[in-house]
């Protein structure tokens, strides 16, 4: 039996997310992002399609690298305006029972004590369906908005992230023991003080002394997502991540990447499949291949490759407006996303702005795009899984919510017919749905879970 | 016609809020606070009773002053554990249409750039029904958890708050002009760059350069709540607050307080009724006075005056466990809530721990408690309004949600029969519901709104 494909819908609390310009399509509803029913309806649609999760990206700065300006991002709504993603979750959780929620939060501008409580709160309110996509940010515009003056250097961002995670693991996994909450009305004991202890972290970047404010939630630690693919990013993923996003277009390179990270995961003492890989993908489908091609041709008319280029400029830190159309893009050292810079400037395959616009940004975004009948799409997805060792897909939106409805109505039954997709949700938390029954918490070999093995003796209540 | 009484339900994302110990009552449901349906059901109940708002308190530290320990707070669940209140809002907003939400956020541990986006996001998702209760914190335990080492001194907290508000007003009121968002599909223009500008704040405590990440929301600035009643707190309220919480037990003193703040409000160039006063109150009611007394006697058996004392100890910064039962409480200089310290140690009326326990903490909390038939309660509420010049009440929960259901079913019709309560919601945002039609935004005379009168000339888009 083929393995079941994992599926996230990839979205963001804004108008233009990945495939830029498509908000101008007459059927696109992304301008409703401020309306709570836009989110509850989307969540219900995804749950009907048995999606594992809705993944919400975020950015806390603006894309001002291209043309050194935000004029284009504002006109084209390139992730600007962008609202807070965490605040949509409880409405969607109330409207669903099984859908998971993976939400991006940049830890660089957060205090671990408060962020830990936010995720615990959502893990309670969703009954164990929350995940955290850990990012550290890379935009100068964000640093200026936060009062940092300038962006922290790439590797130091990971040093801070390591320490930040040490702190939140202590809060989530160690401050409140199992059984600490008794909620015993007759005995008049809500929590047993002997089973709750303060943490005391004094590190290079953070000083945190105190009790976690939240009692243990169904998963304790949210399911940990990560997307870094620099050397440092991969090491971080191998240690911490349970789900990883990848966006390689080339199968051989992707297979190598996946296998390499799994090797590192093993060296960390974890199992190779303790980490799941999701590949970013755009899909345009219809009843027949011809109709799918027609739909794609229709969509493309509304796409904005230049908006895609402006987005790409901030991801890579390279202002493409300074290049002539046919001038090869050269490596530029900067603080942006290292994998994007490397990918763009890899030796032997230098590209020009004209190449990027014509080869990669037809739909306004850089993800691989599948166009075809439901049957063709299903075959292709299964082939990607088989060829590369990834576990599932992060489906970027095109014209929304139509693209998700097409996928749910057309592709999901095809995948199910191939035995490559679940026919009902597994029970339990998001972590159990992804990794199996009995796996509500981080497994024992995970860096965060280890905290629970180093328990101090139970102290006496005074 | 008497003026319409404004009503907030006072609650918190935790088990024990104000009237401690009542979670042990067999009918109390506060231990369901982690369950999203607890919140959506509560919101719908309050909306049925035409409540103006649900007000959610918060605290980001623990109450470790009494006995220098958190053992009692844990056992009695004295606002510990406590989850994040903001994250419940979208679920409740999706389940209602008119109820407002006033949420406490301590600004001391927030970056203005991100907090501004959080409130804008909620103002969008609630369609203009969000309010912010501005607090600056006072707990040493919070400072240690945040890495500050020790609590910032009382008056400096207000200096920081003033500057913080300057920054968020710039983001909410000035970064995006009216009409900046065109969302014009044909013209392919989402926002007009000529009508969006960055702020550049460089102050003593904050440096913030950037564009507000959110487009203008229905209210722009959330309705501003505040509770400080020290000299500095009152000056802050006079300048910024639109709704103020008071908890004076004595009508003469309350009338003087209200009138004094309104005088200050006028000196700030605002109207006397640009600020609404809500008094904290616990109510136990039933069909007859006798049944109400019986219900109160039943509740009291479950109350924990000692838990109330532990809460009081952190509010005042005074460890009552160090006093003999009959020893008068003396003034102690500390960083806690100044009005509580002053109130407790006022010359000529020193009290002992025994006094406090017997006179104030019968229901485990310090708010005045009304016990009586619906008719008696309605008369008493109207009398408080008439005698003191306040505008409404903040109803603390006792046994929940029973206490709110009793109020909605019994007292609301009595108030309506007296013409003292609305019979349907006004349309519009929370600010319009409280202050009248056409008042979606801060009025021109408000310190935040002034920003919009100092507009720079519209810049040319590049």
Automatic annotation (TrEMBL), chains A, B:
Pfam families: Bac_luciferase. InterPro entries: Diverse_substr_monoxygenases (IPR051260), Luciferase-like_dom (IPR011251), Luciferase-like_sf (IPR036661), NTA_MOA (IPR016215). One of its GO terms (molecular function) is monooxygenase activity. Transmembrane segments: none annotated. It comes from the Bacteria. FMN binds at residues 58, 104, 154, 158, 229-230. Keywords: Flavoprotein, FMN, Monooxygenase, Oxidoreductase. Residues 27-391 form the Luciferase-like domain. Belongs to the NtaA/SnaA/DszA monooxygenase family. NCBIfam families: FMN_nitrolo (TIGR03860). This is FMN-dependent oxidoreductase, nitrilotriacetate monooxygenase family. It comes from Caballeronia arationis. The lineage of its organism: Bacteria, Pseudomonadati, Pseudomonadota, Betaproteobacteria, Burkholderiales.
């Amino acid at each position: 039996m083929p393995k079941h494909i994992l599926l996230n819908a990839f979205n963001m609390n804004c108008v233009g997310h990945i495939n830029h310009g498509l908000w101008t399509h007459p059927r696109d509803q992304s301008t409703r992002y401020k309306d709570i029913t836009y989110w509850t309806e989307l969540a219900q649609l995804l749950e009907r399609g048995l999606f594992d999760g809705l993944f919400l990206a975020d950015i806390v700065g603006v894309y001002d690298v291209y043309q050194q300006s935000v004029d284009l991002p504002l006109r084209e709504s390139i992730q600007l305006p962008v609202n807070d993603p965490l605040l949509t979750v409880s409405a969607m959780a109330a409207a669903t029972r099984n859908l998971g929620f993976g939400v991006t939060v940049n830890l660089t501008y957060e205090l671990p004590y408060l962020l830990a409580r936010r995720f615990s709160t959502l893990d309670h309110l969703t009954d164990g369906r929350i995940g955290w996509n850990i990012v550290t940010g890379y935009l100068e515009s964000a640093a200026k908005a936060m009062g940092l003056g300038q962006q922290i250097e790439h590797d130091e961002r990971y040093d801070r992230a390591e320490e930040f995670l040490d702190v939140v693991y202590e809060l989530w996994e160690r401050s409140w023991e199992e059984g600490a909450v008794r909620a015993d009305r007759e005995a008049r004991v809500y929590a047993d003080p002997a089973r709750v202890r303060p943490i005391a972290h004094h590190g290079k970047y953070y000083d945190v002394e105190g009790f976690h404010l939240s009692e243990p939630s169904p998963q304790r630690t949210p399911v940990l997502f990560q997307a870094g693919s620099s050397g440092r990013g991969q090491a971080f993923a191998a240690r911490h991540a349970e789900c990883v996003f990848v966006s390689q277009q080339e199968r051989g390179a992707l297979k190598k990447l996946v296998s390499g990270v799994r090797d590192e995961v093993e060296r960390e003492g974890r199992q190779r499949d303790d980490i799941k890989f999701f590949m970013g993908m755009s899909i345009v489908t219809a009843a027949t291949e011809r109709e799918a091609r027609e739909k794609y041709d229709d969509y493309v008319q509304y796409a904005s490759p230049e908006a895609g280029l402006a987005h790409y400029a901030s991801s890579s830190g390279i202002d493409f407006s300074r290049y002539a159309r046919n001038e090869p893009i050269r490596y530029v050292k900067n603080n942006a996303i290292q994998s994007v810079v490397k990918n763009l400037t890899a030796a032997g395959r230098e590209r020009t702005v004209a190449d990027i616009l014509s080869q990669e940004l037809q739909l306004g975004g850089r993800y691989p795009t599948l166009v075809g009948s439901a049957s063709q799409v299903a075959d292709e997805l299964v082939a990607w899984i088989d060829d590369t060792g990834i576990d599932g897909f992060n489906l970027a939106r095109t014209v929304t919510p139509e693209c998700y409805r097409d996928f749910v109505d057309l592709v999901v039954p095809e995948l199910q017919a191939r035995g490559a997709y679940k026919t009902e949700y597994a029970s339990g938390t998001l972590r159990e749905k992804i990794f199996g029954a009995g796996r509500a918490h981080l497994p024992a070999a995970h860096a965060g879970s280890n905290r629970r093995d180093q328990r101090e003796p139970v102290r006496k209540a005074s």
